Amino acid sequence: MTRQVDSQIPYVYILGASHSGSTLLTLLLNTHRDVGTIGQTAPGGMGDPETYRCSCQALIRHCPFWKRIAREIADDNPGFDVGDFGTTFDKASSSLVRRVLRAEHRGPLLESCRDIVLRLSPSWRREFDRTSANCVALARAVLRTKGARVFLDSSKVAHHVKFLLRIPDFYIRVIHLVRDGRAVSLTYMDQATFADAADPELRLGGRGRGVSSPPAGLPMERAADEWRRCIRSAEFLLRRLPRDRWIQVHYEELCRQPRATVARICEFVGLDSRSIAADFRAVEHHIVGNGMRLDSTSEVRLDERWKSVLKEDDLRVFQAVAGDLNRRYGYV
Asked: Whose CA, among 18, 22, 139, 218, lies 20 to 30 Å from 227?
């Protein structure tokens, strides 16, 4: 068991497939006085930062919180930009390195091959050092701004946390968040309806109907495969972590028993759950991620619309692609 060094930042990472409830969990945990977060440090769908809205609904470049974060970071990292945090490990000058980084997290043999290729690239070593410094600077700035001590990252991607684990400034704990694969697949088929803000005007990062071409949905076969690959990548990552460094949480459990589930997570992280606010919308949030962060309701409600929306053909395809894996997590 690796012990935390006093100078390390307690860093909690939410791992799982997209649209599994990470934004809801982030909002709930962010009500704790000792938790600081901006949601995803490796956001994949921010798009144009000139029109993207913070969860406070201000344009992100005009949000007072984000302006303060930029000032906090500027002394050590003058290149920081709210439109590109510089905290993702999938960018590199070498086309070969970019291809190697794009692959999802795999088993020990393939990860060893990936590591060998990366170690042989001087440009990757420079990129890793630069990105690591940006990750540390962002986490420290957020914690200073809120006066918190635990940083929460809802980026979810397995190979992102693989590289975070190599940063000595961080002591990583992982929340493995799981949701019924049929529900997640539906969000990939129609994200606007099933995984975005309730108000159409606030969808797509706050751009709403102003976006001329919203992203197209996936057919069920590809959607189920996407969920399956995300889950398998998470499993490979967790096998390399000591068992006391991660906890598994089901989205359905979080929605049915939010207080008890959050209390269990707080105990795992080392936080007093009594500091969690009953109404998470009553607390100021400045996060990026899923569109539900822009909603106004604080009701925690289980979303099982897949049961009435997915057709029999969709369910048959899902079962063929990912049914066995879904059942392994208790979904029948």
From this structure: 139
